[in-house]
Amino acid sequence: MPDIIEVKNLTKCFGHFTAVNCINFNIKQGEILGFLGPNGAGKTTTIKMINGLLKKSSGEILVKDLDADTHRKELKKIMGYMSQKFSLYPLLNSLENIEFFGGISGLPGKIIKEKQTLIRETVDPTVLKLKSADIPPGIRQKIALFVCLMTDPEIILLDEPTSGVDPEVRRNFWSEIYTLKQQGKTILVSTHNLDEVEYADRLLIIHKGNLIVEGEPETLLKLHRKESVEELFKDAILKYEEDASGGQGALLKNRPLDPYKTSDKA
């Protein structure tokens, strides 16, 4: 599969604080990439730089071999984004949100009405009349994903989409993600729920703005003789902190390395 997104030496600084530190990774066409890290690790900042909501400090982002900065308007048409905290306007009901987001996305009025009809077939009409802030979290996330997909984007960026919902809702949500993959969509999903990452084709682990692990979950578990992603994650974070406190943290700064190495030698 060819790379559909390439991130090269991507950095974001807020004053003297470096939120994302010269990271490199790619996303292959048609894959699910799991983006794992604790709160504040740099996941949301990275995603916002990819979709153009946040200006990068340095580095390069290529989407379908096009520079994401100079071709932002063109690329916006093929990217869908579901924010962790702001996917729906809380004071609008679901139908109003569909109308608003459909309008700013340039969808014709006829298509917007068709989308509103479609959501009525899958969500209780009484719920659709509620303000988004009053909708149960699981249903709100379902509607938020629906809004994200209205333009039929080729690339889908999901920022902690299952945060705050129960396990059953999370399973159903991942079922929908798999359906999107089967349709040929490319999906980046950020999360801090360790069990979710095993659903992804590949995973990235980011910590304090540094990308420290990259690979296929099953391969990484076998390689490092771990029983779960939780064990892998904890060990990677521990090794990073040990290296950083020993003055070797810079080894992990520019690229995803084997988290079990304490030197740059093989």
Brief descriptors of the model:
266 residues, alpha/beta, four-stranded antiparallel β-sheet, 9 helices, 35% helix, globular, disordered C terminus
SSE topology:
Elements: E1 3-14, E2 17-28, E3 32-36, H1 43-50, E4 58-63, E5 66-67, H2 72-76, E6 79-82, H3 94-104, H4 109-120, H5 125-128, H6 137-148, E7 155-159, H7 167-182, E8 186-191, E9 202-207, E10 210-215, H8 217-223, H9 229-245
Parallel strand pairs: 3-8, 3-9, 6-7, 7-8
Antiparallel strand pairs: 1-2, 1-4, 4-5, 9-10
Explain what you see:
With 266 residues, the chain is α/β, with parallel strands linked by helices. Helix content is 35%, strand content 24%. It contains nine helices and ten strands. A hairpin with a 2-residue loop joins strand 4 (58-63) and strand 5 (66-67). It starts with a strand and ends in a 21-residue tail after the last helix. Residues 247-266 have low confidence and may be disordered.
Provide a concise account of the structure shown:
Helix content is 35%, strand content 24%. It contains 9 helices and 10 strands.
Helix/strand order: EEEHEEHEHHHHEHEEEHH
Structural class call reads: alpha/beta
Helical content stands at: 25-40%
Shape: globular
Distance between the termini: 28 Å
The largest β sheet comes out as:
6 strands, mixed
Mean pLDDT: 87
Please tally the β strands and state the result: 10
Beta-strand residue percentage: 15-25%
Low-confidence stretches: 247-266
Query: How many separate helices?
Result: 9
Spatial ordering of strands, largest sheet = 6-7-8-3-9-10
Computed over alpha carbons, the radius of gyration is 19 Å
